[in-house]
Amino acid sequence: MNTRDQQTVPEQAARERMKASHALDGDATRLAHLYRGWASAFDLDQRRVGYCGPMIVAELAGAVQTAYLAGQRNAVTILDAGCGTGLVGVELERLGFKLIDGFDLSEEMAEKARQTGVYRHAQGNVDLNGRLSNYSSATYDLTVCCGVLTLGHVRPDGLHELARVTRPNGFVIASTRKSYADTTYFEDQVRHMQDEGVLILAQCLRDGRYVAEEDAHYWVFQVPGKISPPTDERP
Ligand SMILES: C[S@@+](CC[C@H](N)C(=O)[O-])C[C@H]1O[C@@H](n2cnc3c(N)ncnc32)[C@H](O)[C@@H]1O
Q: How far is Cα 65 from Cα 23, in angstroms, rounded to an integer?
């Protein structure tokens, strides 16, 4: 008996919905339409496919905060990019983070995130494949992005906006499905941004658990601090 035969009908349906979302080629209208219809069943589907990305991303945020960020955890500001129904926010809140904002392309997914009660703001109709014009530069201590840099969703260029809204010395934490990292220019994008001095790769957990059928890489980037202009003063 193969794995597919062992899946229950609801599990198979959940996998089919996930697969359908990967085939949308970043088309905002079609993605918004798909997630509008999926919002109410999304959390249950994710349990069925063994989705553990949100817990890993939140725990990485906790480790980064403890290791590198001064001050209390409850004063750390976080942007959850592509927050969906709020699975990452719920995990962050469980770990003691309190100042969490989120956005998503889908208004219906963002409404579910608002209903969790863990976000200060969760904004719908925000497209990470474009400029995040409602978000100022250098704002958040941590920016997290889970399940969004994935096939058919957001192009690797989206990493630029994630870095832009994060403050100097802050961190961007993102998951990439293995198939996304393997078939897109994501790793070239990372190298390019490192060369430009836009971010520094601090850690990568390769081949971590993600969903039952596929692993993911989990990336931790630091946004470099501002370099002071040279002065004429000599010691
Ligand atoms: C697989 S879900 C992950 C949601 C959440 N981060 C989580 O881990 O549970 C992908 C989410 O990305 C959102 N999304 C897809 N394309 C997007 C885009 N271009 N900009 C912002 N969000 C997008 C979808 O609406 C959906 O809520």
A: 35
Cα(228) to ligand 1 centroid in Å equals 37
Q: Give the span between the Cα atoms of 86 and 200, in whole angstroms.
A: 27
Q: Where are the domains of the chain?
A: 8-222
**pLDDT score at 147:** 97
- 180 to each of 18, 150, 155, 169, 187, how far by Cα in Å? 14, 5, 10, 27, 10
Q: Is 100 helix (H, G, I), strand (E, B) or coil?
A: strand
86's CB contacts (< 8 A; 6+ apart) are 80, 102, 112, 113, 114, 115, 116, 118, 119, 122
- Whether the pLDDT of residue 94 is over 50: the answer is yes
Is 159 a pocket residue for ligand 1 (Cβ < 6 Å)?
A: no
Residue 1: predicted pLDDT = 41
Question: Tokens 């193969």 sit at which residue?
Answer: 2
pLDDT of 98-132, one tens digit each?
999 999 999 999 999 999 999 999 999 999 999 99
For residues 104 and 113, the answer to whether their CB atoms sit within 8 Å is: yes
CA of 166 to the centre of ligand 1 (A): 19
What mean pLDDT do residues 156-183 have? Answer: 97
Testing ligand 1's pocket by substitution, the residue of 143, 153, 159 carrying the most ligand atoms inside 8 A of its CB is 153
Q: Which fold has domain 8-222?
A: Rossmann fold (3.40.50)
CA of 229 to the centre of ligand 1 (A): 39
